[in-house]
Design brief:
This protein has 2 domains: 65 residues, lambda repressor-like DNA-binding domains (434 Repressor (Amino-terminal Domain), Orthogonal Bundle); 63 residues, lambda repressor-like DNA-binding domains (434 Repressor (Amino-terminal Domain)). It is an all-alpha fold. The protein starts with 16 loop residues before the first helix and ends with a helix. The radius of gyration is 16 Å and the shape is elongated.
Length: 157
């Protein structure tokens, strides 16, 4: 879905994480070393996120947003509003996320197979998300938000 070649940034669907991770860190005057301490990840892992070599996993993206008080929609490129309006920290609850995906799918009268086709994945992946068995990939969250023109919070809360 997201093929990353040397020096190619992740930009599909307004995917702005690469540019915005570094910009936020620099704006706050934090070194990569300070950032990896806050996020509890290795230097190489964080560096790969900033360079676009790897997509930051949703668990770490949520942690970044919580630590930096930044809107997840801003990092995903869905909004240009940097500050999170809801002061409550984001939490990853797989069952709630699954239910929200299920409700979104039903609202749009889609079967799991039809949603899977829209997101270029398999029906079993959608089923795993809806059943709360699998953590949502960051790329899928971005695609869902872009396809359905919704905030990431509609899926995560």
């Amino acid at each position: 879905m997201y093929k990353i070649r040397d020096n190619e940034k992740i930009t599909k669907g307004g995917f702005m994480i690469v540019e915005r991770l570094k910009a936020i860190r620099c704006r706050l005057g934090l070194s990569q070393k300070k950032m990896i301490e806050k996020l509890n990840v290795s230097k190489s892992t964080y560096s790969r996120w900033e360079t676009g070599e790897k997509i930051i996993p949703l668990k770490h993206l949520v942690n970044f947003c919580n630590e930096m008080h930044i809107s997840i929609d801003y990092l995903l490129g869905i909004s240009n509003d940097k500050k999170e309006k809801n002061k409550k920290a984001l939490e990853l609850n797989l069952e709630k996320i699954g239910l929200n995906i299920y409700e979104l799918r039903k609202k749009h009268n889609l079967t799991q197979k039809e949603l899977a086709e829209k997101l270029n994945t398999t029906q079993s992946t959608i089923s795993s998300y809806e059943n709360g068995k699998t953590i949502l990939l960051t790329a899928f969250l971005c695609d869902i938000c872009t396809q359905f023109k919704i905030s990431a919070l509609e899926i995560l809360k």
